[in-house]
Amino acid sequence: MSSAETGLPEGWEVRRSNTKNLPYYFHAQTKDSRWEPPAGTDPDKLKAYMAANHSSKGVAPAAFAPTEGKIRCAHLLVKHRDSRRPASWREPKITRSVEEARSMIKEFQEKIRAYEEDPGQPNAQSLSELAMFESDCSSARKGGDLGFFGKGDMQKEFENAAFALEKGQVSEPVETASGVHLIQRLE
Hints:
- This protein folds into 2 domains: 51 residues, Ubiquitin Ligase Nedd4, Chain: W; 115 residues, Chitinase A, domain 3 (Roll).
- It is 28% helix and 19% strand.
- By secondary structure, it is α+β, with helices and mostly antiparallel strands.
- The protein starts with a helix and ends with a strand.
- A hairpin with a 6-residue loop joins strand 1 and strand 2.
- It has 5 helices and 7 strands.
- The longest helix is centred in the middle third of the chain and has 20 residues.
């Protein structure tokens, strides 16, 4: 795999972790490895390469055991400059407005709805596929999977929306101090 194909800087490659079954970035000469793409990466080329070669389809979710009163959700988070921590693995300094974050979430919501209607449609993507590349949460590398959580574990707005969902259902946009979310109840 060449850097022209992956969009990664020279010497970097994508590998898959044996323990987490997730892609990571490795530099053979320096032996440096990391979960986030290294500085100097072309995000559009990397996104295309990862979608073609490291799709979340078929990747086993994290092995979390359910517990009484807990649910399992995945989410896609778009932060904005007024978020409590306006930085992410994708952007060291987030400058978009809350309106821009809402607009992005609406676009992602349309892609997810299209996927639910017909996964073969152009631009149709599942929440987990979108989260891997678009979410500002570190859970992106797990397709947005947050594992199991109970009442009191999440911000109140997030918790209320998540516990109101049926299994498989995706929420309307939810705003918290972290940013704007789409939430999917997994279990």
